[in-house]
Write a structure and sequence with these properties.
Helix content: 10-25%
Number of helices: 6
Number of domains: 1
Number of strands: 13
Strand order of the largest sheet: 1-3-10-7-12
Radius of gyration: 18 Å
CATH class: Mainly Beta
Structural class: alpha+beta
Strand content: 25-35%
Distance between the termini: 53 Å
Shape: globular
Amino acid sequence: MSDAAILEDRATETVDAQVRYINAEWRNKEESPRIGSKESRRANTSFQEVKVHNARPRLAAGDIDLDRNGFFLSKNHATVADFRNDEEVAEKYHPQMRDFVKRVTGANQAFVYNHLVRTEKPIDFNDGYARFVHCDYNMGRLEEMSHDLLAKHGVTPQDNWTFAWFNTWQPFDNPAHHNPLAVIDWESLPPQDVIDYYYTGRGRDSKVAAPVYNPDHRWCYFPSMATDEVLIIKQLDGRPNRAYYCPHTSFDNKSVAQDIPPRRSIETRLLAVFENDA
C-alpha cells in the first residue's frame, strides 16, 4: 500500500462495518452465554451494522483521554526481531510494555499477565482475530485477578494500592490495514449494556463481560496503524469516576484494497498498580 493510499485511508472519516454482538436475549436471563468456539459464537451473537469513526482527528485535537474514553494511541519502537519467539518477546517486549503503561497511565508499577500474537494463520479459534464484541475481563474479578498475578510475581499487595488492567495492541511486519481493532468509546457506553458471559476456549470457564447492541455506541479505530504505534485500551479499573471497560473487536475493513499484506499484531495484558497517598 503506497504512502498516498495510507494517507487517504487515514483521512477517511467513517467506514461501514458489520460487528457481532452478543444477542440481546441474554440481557434479562439469569444465566450467561458461554463462548469458546466458532459454533458457540455463532449461536450466541449476531451481526449489527455500525459506523466506525476515524479517531485520528480527535487524537490530534487532544480530544481522546484514556480515563474518559477508555483508549489512547501512542508510540513505541519495538526491538523484537521475531514476535513469534515467546522468549524474545518476554525478554525485550514485556519490559517495554511495562514502561509504556507506567508512562501513559502514571502507574507506580506494572506487571505483564501474558501476550498474544495474532496473524492471518491462527492455530485455532482462540488464536484468531477477535470476531465479536467483548471485554477481556469482568469487574467482579478485579481484586482476585490482581492478587493472583501479584502472587505469581512474589509481590504482596498493600492496603493503599488500587488496581487497573490494560491491553496494549501493536502491529508488526505490516501496518494494520485489514482487520483493524475497533473500540467502543466509554462515553457512549451505558454500563447496563454490559452483561456477563463465560469464555470457554482451551478448557477455561472464565467469567468475563460483553455489551449487547445499542445504536448509540460510538465505534472508533485508528486507520492504517503503523508498526511503531500502540493502542492501549482499558480493561478494568478500581479507581472511581473513570472508564473501566473498553469493548472491542476486529472488523473487515472493505475500504482498503484486498491485495495488501495481512494484519499481524501482538497484544499484551497488564496489571497496573497505583499507590495511593497514605
